[in-house]
User: Which sequence fits this backbone?
């Protein structure tokens, strides 16, 4: 007989699960104000009395009194026992149900503190975009890319100013704060092999420094809208061009997608996702009327990414550059997609003209032109057989 599932794991699972996503995959929800409503799946009714609160992660039916969290809903709707419900939700979240005793009871509290630190970092970066003496370079860059203040606000875009310890000085009050920011990847702990000349005297004394410096900052949010990581785009010619937060206890790049939360906020009933390569592609497409673009976070598209998207929409369009590198990336996506294709799912491959990316193309052709390209994109089956023929 299986042992008890640790309470801290259940808390972690609920923490990573969006109840709106869970219920909406089974019952058609409609947004009404801050909540979502539907006809109750647990009793017959003609007008909706079933309500889902995304802030409290709770559902309740005013007609029959059914209510609870995401696990309770899965148990009732799918007619599963508690363990089976937890195992199903854990599999979808990419977690393994532990069979041992509970971990450190302080872990959940530490994780909540980590979310608070990441939210504070987001606020800091947004403030720097408004107030820092060097902000004009960042503002000019964003305006040069055609972004409006409104879309920058929707995506929470900020600015990490030049300097080694701006974030450190703003958020670190004690050694615990410093360690949490190191664990979240916001600070880098200097390694003994780093040359002393590479850092300031203050950095050498303290031993850690800001990961993001002189970059446009893109907050990465989970399905519940909490900041879990950041991406930074360099303003000059420094390398790497894009820098992402490393994996942490709240962020795993192989499971998360940039822009997914924002896409769901724009439209809860999404019929198609377009998968692009960069943060700016996602933001530019949203600004020009295509708010359903997402991007992977420095990794190839995984089957976890695809399963997550297919639970919300039946059609995916991969967008690639038309060069050799784009073709190779498309072949890797094809191999991954093969394992998740089922009846009712559609995948297309959109190859862009040489020298173009979604950002530049949508600015030239608008939403109508880019949508037309997606409609005419190569179907999965055609690209699949073409790929096979190339090897014969």
Assistant:
């Amino acid at each position: 007989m299986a042992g008890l599932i640790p309470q801290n794991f259940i808390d972690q699972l609920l923490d990573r699960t969006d109840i709106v996503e869970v219920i909406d995959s089974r019952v058609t929800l409609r947004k009404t104000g801050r909540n979502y409503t539907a006809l109750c799946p647990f009793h017959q009714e003609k007008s909706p009395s079933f309500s889902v609160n995304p802030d409290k992660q709770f559902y309740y039916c005013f007609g029959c009194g059914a209510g609870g969290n995401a696990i309770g809903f899965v148990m009732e709707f799918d007619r599963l026992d508690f363990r089976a419900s937890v195992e199903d939700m854990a599999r979808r979240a990419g977690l393994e149900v532990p069979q041992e005793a509970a971990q450190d009871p302080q872990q959940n509290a530490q994780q909540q503190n980590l979310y608070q630190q990441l939210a504070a970092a987001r606020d800091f970066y947004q403030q720097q975009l408004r107030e820092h003496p060097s902000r004009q370079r960042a503002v000019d860059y964003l305006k040069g890319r055609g972004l409006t203040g409104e879309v920058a606000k929707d995506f929470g875009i900020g600015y990490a100013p030049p300097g080694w310890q701006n974030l450190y000085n703003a958020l670190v009050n004690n050694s615990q704060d410093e360690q949490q920011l190191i664990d979240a990847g916001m600070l880098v702990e200097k390694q003994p092999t780093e040359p002393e000349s590479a850092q300031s005297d203050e950095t050498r004394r303290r031993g850690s420094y800001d990961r993001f410096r002189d970059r446009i900052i893109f907050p990465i949010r989970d399905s519940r809208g909490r900041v879990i990581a950041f991406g930074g785009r360099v303003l000059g010619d420094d390398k790497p061009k894009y820098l992402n937060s490393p994996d942490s206890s709240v962020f795993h790049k192989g499971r998360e997608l940039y822009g997914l939360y924002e896409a769901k906020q724009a439209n809860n009933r999404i019929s198609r996702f377009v998968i692009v390569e960069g943060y700016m592609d996602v933001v530019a497409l949203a600004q020009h009327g295509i708010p359903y673009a997402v991007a992977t976070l420095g990794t190839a598209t995984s089957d976890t990414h695809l399963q997550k998207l297919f639970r919300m929409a039946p059609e995916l369009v991969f967008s690639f550059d038309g060069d050799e590198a784009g073709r190779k990336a498309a072949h890797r996506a094809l191999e991954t997609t093969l394992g998740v294709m089922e009846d009712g799912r559609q995948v297309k491959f959109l190859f862009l003209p040489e020298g173009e990316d979604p950002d530049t193309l949508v600015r030239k052709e608008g939403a109508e032109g880019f949508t037309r390209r997606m409609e005419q994109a190569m179907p999965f089956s055609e690209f699949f057989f073409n790929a096979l023929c190339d090897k014969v």
The chain has a mean pLDDT of 87. The first helix runs from residue 7 to 16.
